[in-house]
Design a protein that fits this description.
Blueprint: H1 3-21, H2 25-35, H3 41-54, H4 58-68, H5 79-94, H6 100-114, H7 119-131, H8 134-150
Helix pairs in contact: 1-2, 1-3, 1-5, 3-5, 4-5, 5-6, 5-7, 5-8, 6-7
């Protein structure tokens, strides 16, 4: 597995754990990195950026996922697929290091590895629809991020 893919895998595991158990994200990330070291500070920072970039924006990310997967209410999307979609959408819209196509391809690979048999096709379809609007979504998420920063 490529280095950044491993970092995404760690971030996905943390997001999944936080989603299902409510564990503290910092603790969950530290435990994952202890169990599976990434071998570089740059990769650890990338995993950290994913986790802590996504968590405060979950309601906003989920709004777009729900809009572009209308046949699947958010609570019916498997937790692993939901977190893969959140990660990819965050990367597509807010991470300036990841091209849209790479974010989609990486999400599909994670879906193949961790999801059900139908997950890769589902993830690819939803992200394909989101990619068509990623500039508009980016602006909305940047505005949401600014609002969250200014809240006490």
């Amino acid at each position: 597995m490529k280095a950044r893919t491993r970092a995404r895998s760690i971030a996905l595991q943390v997001l999944y754990e936080v989603d299902l158990s409510g564990h503290a994200p910092g603790t969950a990330l530290r435990h994952r990195l202890e169990e599976e070291p990434l071998g570089s500070e740059r990769l650890e920072k990338f995993a950290h950026r994913l986790v802590f970039g996504i968590l405060p924006l979950r309601p906003y990310l989920d709004k777009y996922i729900a809009r572009y997967a209308p046949e699947w209410p958010l609570e019916q999307i498997s937790p692993i697929d939901r977190n893969i979609l959140r990660m990819a959408l965050w990367e597509m819209a807010l991470d300036e290091e990841t091209p849209v196509k790479v974010a989609i391809n990486e999400a599909v690979e994670l879906a193949k590895r961790y999801g059900a048999d139908s997950s890769p096709r589902f993830v690819n379809g939803v992200l394909g629809s989101l990619a068509e609007r990623h500039n508009d979504i980016r602006q909305a998420l940047l505005a949401a991020q600014e609002r969250l920063k200014s809240e006490p």
